[in-house]
Amino acid sequence: MELEGKRSHVIDTLFVICLLFLFIICAVTVIIIGAGVYKKNVEAMSGNYSHRISCAYISEKIRQSDEKGRVFVDNIFGQNTLVMQDETDGVLYNTYIYNHDGYLMELYARSDLSEIYPQAGQKILKISSFDIKEIDDAFFRVLVTLDDGTVEDFLITRRSTDT
User: Fold this and answer.
1) Which domain holds residue 133?
2) Is the entire prediction scored with pTM above 0.85?
3) Over the stretch 125-153, which tens digit does the pLDDT of each residue have?
4) Does some domain include residue 105?
5) Up-side HSE of residue 155: CA atoms within 13 Å toward CB?
């Protein structure tokens, strides 16, 4: 009788191995599903970032420099470029926002420089196109085509028109 209690059946071993494999399959499935959800969230957040940053960045730059006559649009680098002037220690500086090689760029330079290079600016955001127009003394119309083809078209109010 003692021999029967200590005997191990093949079925018992197979059952434990099958249970282990079932656990492994479930764990891998949960990991794969989690990775898919994470990837979708990252893509959505990246797209949302591009949409928000293009509008917010340009709006904030205009509001930051908003003094009568200090923010205007000029044709530089063969395109409409947002120009914001700032005077520091009696020297006039310009901040240019423009499109170059598929990026929204910002360049800060002295206004008396005879030649400036578009590639010298800092890359802000990957875009397809950028256009800005002064509608009148109070409004700028900005049209940004993002890298994914989404078009952001918005108006920015200049607050310094009444001074």
Assistant:
1) 44-162
2) no
3) 999 999 999 988 788 999 999 888 888 88
4) yes
5) 8
